[in-house]
What does this fold into?
Amino acid sequence: MNFIELLQSVPLFSEMTNEELRTLEQSMVIEDYPDGHQIVSEEHINDRFYVLLEGEVEITHEKDTERGLQRLSTMGAGSLIGLHGLIGHNRPIVSCRANGSVKAAYLPSSAFNLLYQYNTRLPHHFQTIVAKQLAADYRNIVGELREMMLEDND
Amino acid sequence: MAMTPASFKDEFPAIAEHCGPGGLDDLLAALQIRNIQVGQAVTTDGEYCDSLFLVARGKLVSQITSDNETIRLGSLIKGDIFGEVNILDPGPSTSTVIATEDCTLLVLSHNAFRKLDKPHPVMTGNILRMMCSIMVDRCRVADKLLFSKYAYIEGITDSESSQHPRLLQWGRDILQKLHGHAGSQL
It folds into this structure.
């Protein structure tokens, strides 16, 4: 499966045209990571947005906790990692480590900004994808908190 | 109540700064003016909404409600905006917003915003990025608070948690921040 086919298999990218995906292909870097490789760390500012193409990553949280390492979840192919890094350059809240061999494509925020200068439609489409994912994340957090609050109030 | 480009710039500078002269005119044309009477709901928790709301006049309150209690999240006044999530991704509202005074709102629907894409892609792209940035900040704050309190919650038994005032207050704090009503702390 080539890069474009891999991206097309990710639901959020399925509506992109082949031309847009080709432009994206030129802007993204594909890398293979060995088992245990730390892809995103809470200790370092992340400015890359990753699309997990093959394999599985483990999401963990360690910083600022008394309990040490917490394993939060695992994510598989098609998952998006580092959305927040694309928007604001901050240290991530969680870390992300390869669980077995992993293939991922990443887009540096500098490349994302360059796309805005040379092409208006693709970054717009990409920004819309980011916005939808953020909105979904936001709704999930609010939903969980609201459920907890309302249960506690009953 | 017509809004001129100059008054829009004064009242909503965060949005206006992304608009060129032609873009601002078209954005103003895309905004619908809605007058809301005191007590009337603008959005209802869980119900579909696809719009961003800009408060041009009056005061509103944002809240969520259970069978037994209403949790007030904060107030919205002239110059505030709400509905960022819904214009980005139309779907269920995350809170109920009710007018506590007669209000005038400027309403920008998802479709009206998307129609501005073609003539003003830079403007809409920048506004989109601004709203994404707001969402990222709120999610980061919520995540941080969630993690920082995680151990504390785990130390509370189920029977204690249902009546634990500090836990309830903590949950309220996070919800308020998520809805942008504690901006100074973001």
In short: The CA atoms of residues 56 and 76 of chain A lie 5 Å apart.
